[in-house]
Write a structure and sequence with these properties.
- Residues 1-33, 42-57 have a biased composition (Polar residues).
- GO terms for molecular function: GTP binding.
- This protein is an alpha/beta fold and 641 residues long.
- The chain has two domains: 70-279, P-loop containing nucleotide triphosphate hydrolases (Rossmann fold, 3-Layer(aba) Sandwich), CATH 3.40.50.300; 364-637, no CATH class.
- Helix content is 45%, strand content 11%.
- The strands form three sheets. Strands 2-3-1-4-5-6 form a six-stranded mixed beta sheet, with helices on both faces.
């Protein structure tokens, strides 16, 4: 049986006719040495392309003088896997940018390629995606500002495309925060050059108004941008529609963004401290109606007096005017003092954050990779053990689960529903092939028990039914709703360490090594007894039992890292979903999906997912992100060969 298939971007298919409608001249700037391709486009699998260079945009005025072409620099942003590189590939009608494999970033930094179309040369800037597992969104923003502001020559930009996939989640606090930051970086006057692009799957007639409705909802993070002049459009990743979109930018000349005006127009190249302070300041801006305050009120009042009084009546009001001028000067001085104090506090805050993060020795990408390794170990153990069981205890009398020795007990174990089906039987009453069933059934049991015994409790040394664990989780959830991530993380690590001390090192060691045996005796063996019957006297080889203990030990040790070692990165929670849970593409990936499959429920979880929650400290709860989707089996995979 094939292993879990990671979700990956599909390569763009375009016809030869589309590809020839505009000349394609891919090129890259050589004003900097080329990067190591392992650093520029690092991944484990995907579409291979030629090496690219990483450099800020060239000065478009100089370039135009040189070759009489009109350069149109367009920045392309979006979340990881949203289709940024695919959009560029569609514009070219071939693969010029590497695509993500769904787990790692294919684009680690900002890169541009040039597409020639008539007298225009579109400089398409690919970017690392937000909400990725390699580094934080703050790092993406920092790299964006370096790209825009730290080149040899400050270059304006014609437009920005933000790519949003059709199935993308609009209720994300991270998306909302990123849109507010992006608005600050661009500036309100630049927003008429921003296009929010909803990528839909090409399939017959498309109701564009219906597709775009969620993006234009008053609660959508994109609605404010739309109201301020940004375009919101939908497109399929096909060559001609993408080129038509690019041509719509050619009508406007390039302009500087707000961040470029603020950080670079003085002629000094901003350093990392400047960028960090700028981002911190932007994160605290409350966009909305700007009320007249302090100096603005006085300046307005002074202007009105000077403009509306006649020359004959100015003399009696001279004292009032001078008084207002003095008050205005004092208010301006106070505003400057407050601004200076604010900058000082922001610098102190940034320094404090840096000091706190020094002690965070674990990267998010490593955390995700650890769970991928655990899932792979579950898969390997299930495949090896199922092959042994079929070879040893199977036979011509047991080809499918229909011939289970105790079919009713087996159905009960996997919560079979006669109308909906289960791992044991389909909704049509068909049994599953024995080797297929054992593979997914063992993976299902292992995932369920790892979750219940190790990851779901606050501490793996306590069972979920233990009143101490239940009380601790209640406290934990109460703190989550009100405190900052720093407070929550420190409370969690201190409480976890205290519980470990109360249980004791010797008892923890016993529990850690016992879990594998408990899963084997209490969960796997009963399932095998229902399948083969007690007369078969099924025995598990020692090598498989030892592999199970190694798996549970690895999961335990990783859980300790999540609960006791991590503070600021967030609260990480592995996830498994129960039999019959509603299928949700946002948090689940279907195992070996059939063409056109649209399941409404799952049969079981066979690969753990991973969520991370970050406490906001605002009383608004947590910001939750799915880092790894749970792998689930649906009835679409059920088959008889």
């Amino acid at each position: 049986m094939a292993g879990t298939k990671p979700g990956s971007q599909k390569s763009i298919k375009s016809t030869r006719a589309n590809a020839s409608q505009a000349p394609i001249k891919p090129s890259t700037s050589s004003s900097r040495p080329a990067q190591d391709p392992k650093q520029a486009n690092r991944k484990t699998s995907g579409t291979k392309v030629a090496r690219d260079t990483s450099t800020p945009l060239v000065d478009s005025d100089k370039a135009t003088v040189k070759d009489n072409a009109v350069y149109v620099p367009i920045l392309i942003l979006g979340a990881q896997g949203s289709g940024k590189s695919s959009l560029i590939n569609a514009a070219f009608g071939k693969n010029v940018r590497e695509l993500s494999n769904g787990f790692e970033l294919a684009t680690q930094d900002f890169h541009f390629v040039t597409l020639g179309s008539g007298r225009y040369k579109f400089m398409l800037v690919d970017s690392p995606g937000f909400d990725n597992t390699s580094f934080s969104d703050a790092e993406v923003m920092t790299r964006l500002i370096r790209f825009l502001c730290c080149g040899k020559a400050l270059a304006p930009v014609t437009g920005v495309i933000y790519v949003h996939p059709q199935e993308g989640y609009l209720g994300s606090g991270i998306l909302k925060r990123n849109m507010l930051l992006l608005r600050s970086l661009l500036g309100d006057s630049f927003l008429n050059r921003l296009t929010v692009l909803l990528v839909h799957r090409p399939k017959g007639e498309v109701n564009h108004q219906k597709i775009l409705a969620p993006l234009l909802d008053s609660r959508s993070p994109f609605r404010t941008l739309y109201d301020l002049g940004a375009r919101v459009e939908t497109i399929s990743l096909e060559t001609q529609p993408v080129r038509d979109l690019l041509l719509s930018f050619a009508e406007k000349g390039p302009e500087f963004m707000s961040v470029q005006n603020e950080l670079s127009r003085s002629g000094r190249m901003p350093n990392d401290g400047d960028i960090s302070t700028y981002l911190t300041k932007c994160a605290r801006i409350k966009h909305g109606a700007h009320a007249l305050t302090g100096p603005k009120v006085m300046a307005t009042g002074l202007s009105q007096i000077q403009n509306h009084i006649s020359s004959s009546s100015r003399q009696p009001l001279t004292k009032d005017i001078k008084k207002l001028e003095v008050q205005l000067a004092e208010s301006k001085k106070q505003a400057e003092d407050f601004s200076s104090q604010l900058q000082q506090h922001l610098s102190q805050y940034t320094a404090l954050c840096s000091q706190l993060q020094i002690h965070e020795n674990t990267e998010q990408s490593a955390i995700v990779q650890n769970l991928i390794d655990i899932n792979r170990r579950v898969e390997d153990l299930a495949l090896s053990l199922s092959q042994y069981l079929v070879d040893t205890y199977g036979g011509q009398d047991k080809t499918t689960t229909q011939y289970a020795a105790h079919l009713s007990e087996l159905k009960l174990l996997f919560e079979h529903d006669e109308k909906e089906g289960s791992l044991v039987q389909s909704s049509k009453g068909e049994g599953m092939l024995l080797d297929d069933f054992l593979d997914v059934a063992i993976r299902s049991i292992l995932c369920e028990q790892l979750y219940k015994r190790i990851f779901a409790p606050f501490h793996p040394g306590l069972s979920r039914s233990d009143p101490r664990d239940q009380y601790t989780i209640k406290l934990y959830n109460h703190i989550k709703a009100k405190e900052t991530q720093a407070t929550l993380g420190r409370w969690r690590t201190a409480s976890f360490s205290a519980i470990s001390g109360i249980i004791g090192e010797r008892e923890l060691l016993r529990l850690r090594t016992q879990i594998g045996s408990d899963i084997l005796d209490n969960n796997l063996m009963p399932m095998l007894g229902h399948l083969f019957g007690s007369d078969k006297k099924v025995l598990i080889p020692r090598s498989h039992a030892e592999s199970l203990t190694e798996l549970t030990t690895q999961a335990w040790d990783w859980c300790v890292v999540l609960k006791e070692k991590i503070v600021l990165l967030g609260d990480y929670q592995p996830i498994a979903y129960r039999y019959g849970a509603t299928f949700n593409t946002s948090v689940m990936s279907e195992f070996e999906p059939q063409p056109g499959s649209q399941p409404n429920r799952i049969l079981s979880t066979i690969g753990l997912g991973l969520n991370v929650e970050v406490a906001q400290g605002t009383g608004e709860g947590l910001c939750r992100t799915t880092l790894l989707k749970a792998c689930v089996v649906t009835e679409g995979w059920f088959r008889i060969d």
